[in-house]
Structures are given as structure tokens and as C-alpha cells.
Amino acid sequence: MQTAPDDGLARWLDHIGPMLAGLQDLVVDSGTALDHSAASLRDLERLLLTETLDAAPREGLVEALGGYLGESLLTVGGGAWSWDEASGLPVAALDAGGTVEPMSLVLDAVTRRTGTVWAGEHERVMAEAARRRADDDGWEPRRADPPALPTRAGDDTPDPWLPRWLTARRDRFDAWSAETGRAQELDFSPASLVPLAQVVRQRIPSPEALKAQMDDDLVQGAIWYLGEVARIHRAARWRYTPDPDGTSANPSVGRPWVAQDDDGGGSAIPALELRVAVRADTDDVLLERFAEFD
User: For the sheet containing 79-84, what is the strand order?
Assistant: First the structure.
């Protein structure tokens, strides 16, 4: 008798938690953190390639890796697990758009043997989410079902660049705020996002100018300030993924960004928020967008 889609999905959701717990036990000594990051996917893909050099993978590994891959894509792209009746396999139906069949990607990794298949898919989904966020004010990727292995605050160690940058910006704040001419108003309250937007809009006339000035002190200070307001008032946390080659098309790679730790919580890339402010016709734009960050 053929499995009904609802039965297949129910069984999958019942088993994915224990499968991922077993996967966690498998990698506990390797230093791999199952934090749904691209780095964790690279580590696990290498594990699979090592296991399949001259033998089939151990029983249950393909299903566990497919489950973790799907969970990771749902974490960055939102959505929920679904069931594909034609293939009889679970699929990740993404809030960012489209569906992904993780088991096929697991087999694809074994066939291609590049070690980058899963991280590349993770980056693609993050880029799709960033594009939709930029096009659709107020949209954020949301999980529509409970995560099988939630990411918790403190599970991941930040890239060394991030704490250095945060310290430098914190130390520079008094001088930076004085140079804006609005120091008394820049008090890290949500309302202070209005004078921040005014400063940015007055001094940076276009998105092209913003891009050219991205590394300037004014812009870097504004990026930090905007993220700090989210950290203070929305319990967000700074994140950073390095882009060593400078070739990533993912807007969140190579830039500091902020996200809430709760599954389905909000996230934002301050540099892109500044681009929205420069293009807007109101000084309230950052405050309005901040009100939707939850």
C-alpha cells in the first residue's frame, strides 16, 4: 500500500528529532557544531565524502544528513517540512520561495564530490531571503513548524573579525556621533533612528554613493549604530560570515548583520537597511522598518 502524504510527513517529523540527536552524538568529538551554519554543512559533507570513498555510508546517515540539511535551509529561508507524493520523500517548502528535496542534495554531494554542494545551497537560500526582504518591506523568513534542532545563543563562536570590529566601533562612537552633529539625539532609542536616517540621507545622495562610501567611518558607524539598536531593543545578536575571496553574491556574507536567536525571529543586514533609507522619501524609514523587526 502506498504511503499517504500526511502519513509520510508525520512519520518523518516523528523521527527527525532522534535522527539529529544521533547525528549530534556522531560529531561531538569532531568540533562540528550543529548550528545550521554553512560551516557545519561543509563539515558534514566532508564526513559523508570520507565515508563513501570505498563503501556505502553507515545505516541511517543519509537520512540524518538530509534532515539536518533541510532544517538548516528552513532556518535561513523559513517555511516548513512537506511531503512530495511523487518521490515519497520529505521536502523543505521554503518561505523564501521554492522547495528543496534534501535527500537529492545528499546524493548529489556524493556524485559531485566537491564538498561544497550543501553550503552552496545554504548560500543560495540566504540570498533569496535577502532579496525578498529587500523587495518586500516587513517580510522575514518564518518557520511554520517546530524546529527539530533549534539553534541556541552561544552555540557558535563568532569569526574573529566581528569582535574586533564591534570593539573598534564602540570605541569610536563618541567621536563618530559628535561628527554627525546629532550626538544628543543618538541615544540608542528606537526614536533615534529618525535622526540617524536624516544624517545618512543628507550626506549620502544615492545608493551608488553609499556603495562607494561603504568603508567610510560615517557609514560603518551607522551600520554599527543601527545594529546596536536592534541588539538592545529586540534581543538581536551580531553575526558575521567571512567572504575570503570577495566573490559571494550573498548580501549577508562579508557584512555584519543581526538576528534574534528565537526560531522564526527577525534578522536584518544594516548595510542594506541604509540603502533602503537612502532610496526612501521619508526620514522615518528606519524607524518604520525597525517596528516590523520582531
Answer: 79-84, 89-94, 99-100
Q: Among 121-135, 166-180, 203-217, where is mean pLDDT lowest? A: 121-135
Q: Domain span at residue 105?
A: 5-135
Beta carbons of 226 and 270 less than 8 angstroms apart? yes
Domain-embedded: residue 146: no
Question: What's residue 294's pLDDT?
Answer: 62
Confidence of residue 286 (pLDDT cuts 50, 70, 90): very high
Check whether 215 has a pLDDT greater than 80: yes
Identify whether residues 269 and 195 lie together within a single domain.
yes
Q: What is the pLDDT of residues 234-268, one digit of tens each?
A: 888 899 888 877 777 777 788 999 988 765 567 88
C-alpha–C-alpha distance, residues 77 and 131, integer Å: 11
- 169 and 129 in one domain? no
Q: Check if the beta carbon of residue 44 is closer than 8 Å to that of residue 118.
A: yes
Contacts 24+ apart (CB under 8 A), 109-113: 109/45, 109/48, 109/49, 110/48, 110/49, 110/52, 113/49
In the prediction, which pLDDT does 52 show? 93
Cell 523564501 identifies what position? 96
Amino acid of residue 268: A
Amino acid at 189: S
Contact yes or no for 255/271 (Cβ under 8 A): yes
pLDDT higher than threshold 70 for residue 136: yes
- For residue 144, is it within any domain? no
Hey, how many other C-beta atoms are within 10 angstroms of the C-beta on 185? 16
